[in-house]
Design brief:
Helices cover 13% and strands 66% of the residues. It is mainly beta and 256 residues long. The chain folds into two domains: 1-35; 46-255, monomeric porin ompg (Porin), CATH 2.40.160.
Length: 256
């Protein structure tokens, strides 16, 4: 009799333990289900400042300096990008480089790849005798490649140019054809390349081509080495000026 009662008590204890574990598991599941889902990370601005300096004395006497500031922010619907760059150079006390460039672009994404862009560009180039060149453009864009490592996009759209070159002011319509490629080789090194073609609507022999290619290699947590090459070709430059302007820059960049 005692043996039967002991067996019965053991069975009841085991059942109670199993029931307790079941209730505990159910309570945890309910608590997890009822817990609020953490909000997605808010997109932040990625900003970097870069500067490069070349100074020679002796048989040569030159000074070349460049500084730039870029910032961008991206989320599934909105993409913003802004940039400012200035450069100055002398050779034996004679100025041979003085430029200011700026741009701003906004992309509104309708899908993961298709978007509508609006863009503004500004250029001042004393050596090329460009007092100002302001370009406003808008149109559709598309990411042909878009993943964690590689992005390739193309854009096309109408625009308008306001400029003063060689002392002459002009305003005319243009069409902007552009592409941009970015690739991350690893966590420390990435490259980019871009090109745009801007012909004058009423005279396609009058056009501007801008191109750039560069590499960014991380040296420390927020410090990187950034060599890049810029090229601008004007089919109809200011009087007594050359068609092509090529600039190679080696800068150190700090990322905020």
């Amino acid at each position: 009799m005692n043996m039967r009662r002991l067996t019965h008590l053991k069975a009841r204890s085991a059942a109670a333990i199993i029931a307790g574990l079941t209730l505990a598991g159910s309570g945890s599941a309910i608590a997890e289900a009822g817990a609020p889902t953490p909000p997605p990370a808010h997109p932040t601005w990625e900003t970097s400042a870069a500067a490069g300096l070349t100074l020679t004395r002796g048989n040569s006497d030159t000074l070349n300096a460049v500084a730039s500031l870029t910032t961008s922010r991206k989320d599934p619907v909105h993409e913003w990008a802004f940039g400012l760059e200035g450069s100055y150079g002398e050779d034996h006390g004679v100025k041979n480089n003085e430029t200011i460039k700026a741009y701003g672009q906004y992309n509104h994404l309708f899908s993961e790849r298709l978007y509508l862009f609006g863009r503004a560009d500004f250029l001042y180039d004393a050596i090329a005798d460009v007092d100002y060149r302001v370009t406003l453009s808008a149109g559709p864009g598309y990411y042909f490649i878009k993943n964690a490592k590689t992005r390739l996009s193309g854009e096309v759209g109408p625009g308008v140019v306001f400029e003063k070159i060689g002392g002459q002011t002009d305003t005319y319509a243009t069409i902007r054809f552009a592409e941009r490629f970015e690739h991350k080789f690893n966590d420390k090194t990435k490259m980019w390349q871009s090109a745009e073609y801007l012909p004058r609507i009423d005279d396609w022999n009058n056009y501007v081509v801008n191109a750039e290619i560069g590499l960014d290699t991380l040296l420390a947590s927020n410090l990187s080495l950034r060599p890049y090459l810029q090229d601008t070709y004007r089919s109809q430059p200011a009087p007594n000026r050359k068609h092509n302007d090529l600039k190679l820059v080696v800068a150190v960049a700090y990322k905020f």
